[in-house]
Amino acid sequence: MNRNNRRKTVKIPLGKETMELLKIHLSSSHILEGYIFPHLRDESEYDTTRMIVETMENVEIDKRYIFAFIKVGRLITTENKKYVPAEDRKAWKKAIKQYEQLIESGVLKPSDSLIPFIEASKTVINPKRSQTELEMLFDIRNFHYNIVEASRQRFINYDFPGAVFNAYKKVLNSVQEKSGNIKDDGISLVTKVFNPKKPILQTHLADLEGNNSIQEGIMHLFMGAVLSIRNIFAHKDVYLMDVDMALEYLSFASFLCKILEVMKRM
């Protein structure tokens, strides 16, 4: 290779305070001044980032900066920002603002670890499954057509978190459309629409049973979907690589769509 064509290495300073904090925890095991020790080369990108984030949390670095580090993939300080591309500096500021919004909205607490955000919402390639196999695994489930429309493409492109989020977003959109309630969303929507005492949408089994237990059960199914799945995938980045787990999430969303399809508007 022509020496003139070789890329020049630029040393980016982190600042004395930052380096001292990191040296305490990294010098004996992981990363020191940009040098990757041999045993770390066998670690995945996720594991490496996790170790760094754990270290930053242990030395109590500002959570805003840890969150931005996860999102941008680099640590930007006063000392090194002049070496960082404008695009990354913009992304860094955006990530800090996003973290502050999560705190203000109550979705995150200042004490919450940021480990779940690592690698989240990124396309994760799973080498064990080809796209052809993912297509087959998805299609054989015979999902409700709403789930196929909302999630199939993302699923076969390895975006499992995106597929799950789109599925549950579609479920709630369908509840709004069928009930005519387009003002409410989430818990307020499903508790009003499926309220066993005054339902907007009612199961046909309610009349056969002669009580409200089935209607109440359906309301709780949709409430669980909102609280434990939709809200998690909407408000927190989720690291999801397990194909089978993603399919289970999608199966439940499909089940809810099929329940909704046979309910009658009161």
In short:
The protein is mainly alpha-helical and 266 residues long. Helices cover 57% and strands 3% of the residues.
Can you walk through the features of this model?
The chain is mainly alpha-helical. The chain folds into two domains: 9-117, no CATH class; 131-265, no CATH class. It contains eleven helices and four strands; from the N terminus they run αββαααααααβαααβ. The protein has helices spanning 16-26, 45-58, 63-72, 86-105, 131-139, 145-156, 160-179, 186-193, 205-209, 213-235, 243-261, and strands spanning 31-32, 35-36, 201-202, 264-265. The strands form two sheets. It has a two-stranded antiparallel sheet. A two-stranded antiparallel ribbon has the order 3-4. Strand 1 (31-32) and strand 2 form a beta hairpin. Helix 7 packs across helix 8 (186-193).
Features:
single chain, 266 residues, two-stranded antiparallel sheet, 4 strands, globular
First-residue to last-residue Cα separation: 76 Å
Q: What structural class should be given to the helix and strand makeup?
A: mainly alpha
- The portion of residues forming beta strands comes to under 5%
Low-confidence stretches: 1-12, 24-43, 121-125
Order of helices and strands: HEEHHHHHHHEHHHE
Overall pLDDT score: 77
The count of strands amounts to 4
The Cα radius of gyration reads: 24 Å
Major sheet size, sense and barrel closure: 2 strands, antiparallel
Helix content: 55-70%
Q: How many domain units?
A: 2
Principal-axes shape call: globular
Widest β-sheet, arrangement of strands: 1-2
Number of helical elements: 11
Q: Regarding quaternary structure, how should these chains be classified?
A: single chain
